[in-house]
Each structure stands twice: as structure tokens, then as C-alpha cells.
Amino acid sequence: MRPPLPTRLDRIAARYAAKPAVSAFSVALEQPSTGFSWRYGDIDRPYFVASITKLYTVAMIMQLRDEGSFTLDTRAADILGADTMRGLVVHEGHDYGRAITLRELLSQTSGIPDYYDQKRPDGTTLAAEILHTDAAWTFDDFLEMARNMPSRFAPSTPGRAQYCDTNYQLLGRIVEVATSGSFHDALRHRILEPLHLQHTWLFTPHTLDRYDRVATLRHGRTPLHIPKAIASFPPDGAIVSTAADQMRFLRAFIAGDLFPSHYLAEMTARWRPVFSPLIPIHYGLGIMRYHQPRWQNPFTPVPPMIGHSGAFGTVLYHVPAHDLYIAATVNQMHPVSLPHVLLLRLVSHFP
């Protein structure tokens, strides 16, 4: 006789929790249509959600759009100023920076170089640097890094997209300009307080002393101490949350509790690959889709998931075909595939 579903999920989770590299593992899963709910680990333990932060930034952009602050086709330069956007996309001798729109920033089609993962002139990357050195950077630092890198394509080049944290640094600054305040205040007033996310907060230079209260982040078996670096990423990677709070946020995001529900159809209407062809992650309009093709997983096919993942071993996805919501973390940067393999194995147990 086949074991009950919770038992099967417990067994999968226990195997992951026992892996030597996994740190402070937790996962929450809900299926509203059936009332099914399952948890493993301490779902109230805080962890760095990394790039899942981008969904919070996107939600505020969509709120401001609905309020008439701008449209998706508004040029970023019209909000931030031409000087801010100057030189961010120079392709084949032409500077496209002042023409970039919010739509292009959200969809990762701006052509702006990625300050985090793209190689700098000396062949190094910031992503590799923070594994050895903790340092603080500013918004202007990140823009200058991008200006010193080659643009791979002009904005909205057909068939081209690149995952780019610089895009979301700019979107975070747009939130600040549009709200005449800090990103932290906008996040608190527009998302955290309305959704009662009492265990979710923004890690900033003012909260560096709270770093050790968050689940330990590892790269392989090496624990990382990078508070200054993480505090430099407010709109693209600095939120601290819990699996329980992440679940509440994702359900509100998908249900239209944060912005008009019909926006989600537009956000998920078109998907573009943003990594190598072998990485089954695509980007819509401010949202990720994870969908492993049948040839990569022929025996246990899993339907597409929408949401976001993060470089710290974090995932937050909705599986529309099964009405599933999943929030999980392995607090691990290497291997990057670890939380996604977990996702596939958990979801494969649902009809």
C-alpha cells in the first residue's frame, strides 16, 4: 500500500535536511482547493530570500502603475533623469540608456549589463567576490559597474533577454522617487503591514547586527558572513522572511490582493529564457517561470511553476495546474540546482 501523501513528502524533506551542505532547511506547501497543508522544519525561522525580493519590488511597481504614477512604457529616464540612465546600454556605438522603459526593466530585456553575475573588465564578478570579501556598495556603484561592462544587446532586441540585477536596482529607485520616500518605508507601508508579514523585514546597513539571527547561509560547506554585501541589495535581494510569511505573500501576489488581478495575465503572457538554454528558467514581466522540459525529466513530468527563486537556495513558486504554493529554503548557494530538484520531487507527488 502506498504511504499517505504527508509521509511521502516527509521522507523527501528528511533526505534533503540530512544533506551536509543544507543549512536550516524549511519548506511550506499549500493547496487551497483541497485544504491540504504541509510543513517541514521551522517555518518561522528567518532566512535571506535573495532574489525573491524582486517580487516585492514588482508588486510595488504594479501598485504605482495602478495609481497612475506611470505606465509600463514610461521611460525610466523620465522618472530618474537622463544622467542616471546615461551609458547603461551602449551597443554598437549607440547609447540606448535614456530610451529604456519600465517594461524592459521588468522583463529583463533592457540590455543593461548585470552588475552581479556578469564579468567585469578584469574578468572577475561581484558574485565571486562576495564569497571571499564582505563589502558595501551603493546604487551609484552598481550603475558604474554596469557602465563599465559591455551590453550584450540593444533594448527589446527580438529573442534576447538577460537576467539582470541592475534592472531591479533601477526599479527600486523608481519606487523611491514615485513615493517620495525610502524603499524600506514603501515596502513596509505597501506590503508588509497590509499583509501582516510580521516576520519579514528589509536587511539594511542599519540592521547589520541582526545578521546572526538569520539562518546561516553557506557556499558548499563554507558558512558565509556577508552582511554588508546583502544590505547593498534592497530592491533585488535583501529581504529577510520565513517560509510561513513567504507563503502568505505569494498567495496574495497571485490572488490579486496586492495589485489588480488582471495584471498577472499580462505578466505571464510571454516568457523569455534569461540564462543558458539548459537552465529551464524563463522571465515574464517581473516574474519567473520554472518548467523542466519533458526531455530533461521524461519519467516524472511536472507542470510549469511561476514565482521566483534566489541565489541563496530559496524558491517561492505557484503551480497553477495543481493549485499548489511552495516556499522553501536550503540556505545554500552551491549547487544552485539543489532547491529546484527538491521542488520537482515534491510536486511530482501531486496528480
Helices and strands in order:
Elements: H1 5-17, E1 26-31, E2 36-40, E3 47-48, H2 53-66, H3 76-80, H4 82-85, E4 90-91, E5 94-95, H5 102-106, H6 126-129, H7 139-147, H8 165-179, H9 183-192, E6 201-202, E7 218-219, E8 222-223, H10 227-230, H11 234-237, E9 239-241, H12 243-255, H13 262-267, E10 272-273, E11 281-283, E12 288-290, E13 305-310, E14 314-319, E15 324-329, H14 338-347
Antiparallel strand pairs: 1-2, 1-15, 3-9, 4-5, 6-9, 7-8, 10-11, 11-12, 12-13, 13-14, 14-15
Helix pairs in contact: 2-8, 2-9, 7-8
- Helical content, roughly? 25-40%
Counted beta strands: 15
Rg, Å, rounded: 19 Å
- CATH architecture descriptor of the largest domain: 3-Layer(aba) Sandwich
Lateral arrangement of strands in the main beta sheet: 2-1-15-14-13-12-11-10
- CATH third-level topology of the largest domain: Beta-lactamase
Mass-distribution shape: globular
**From N to C, what is the helix and strand string?**
HEEEHHHEEHHHHHEEEHHEHHEEEEEEH
- The CATH superfamily of the largest domain is DD-peptidase/beta-lactamase superfamily
Name of the top-level CATH class of the largest domain: Alpha Beta
**Average predicted local confidence, pLDDT:** 96
Q: Structural class, from helix and strand content?
A: alpha+beta
Q: So how many helices?
A: 14
pLDDT < 50 runs, ≥5 residues = none
C-alpha termini separation? 17 Å
Number of domain units:
2
Taken as a percent bin, the fraction of beta residues is 5-15%
| Biggest sheet features | 8 strands, antiparallel
Description:
By secondary structure, this protein is of the alpha+beta class. Helix content is 33%, strand content 15%. The protein has an 8-stranded antiparallel sheet with strand order 2-1-15-14-13-12-11-10, with helices on both faces. Helix 2 packs across helix 8, helix 2 crosses helix 9 and helix 7 crosses helix 8. The longest helix is centred in the middle third of the chain and has 15 residues. 44% of the residues are buried. The model has no long low-confidence stretch (mean pLDDT 96).
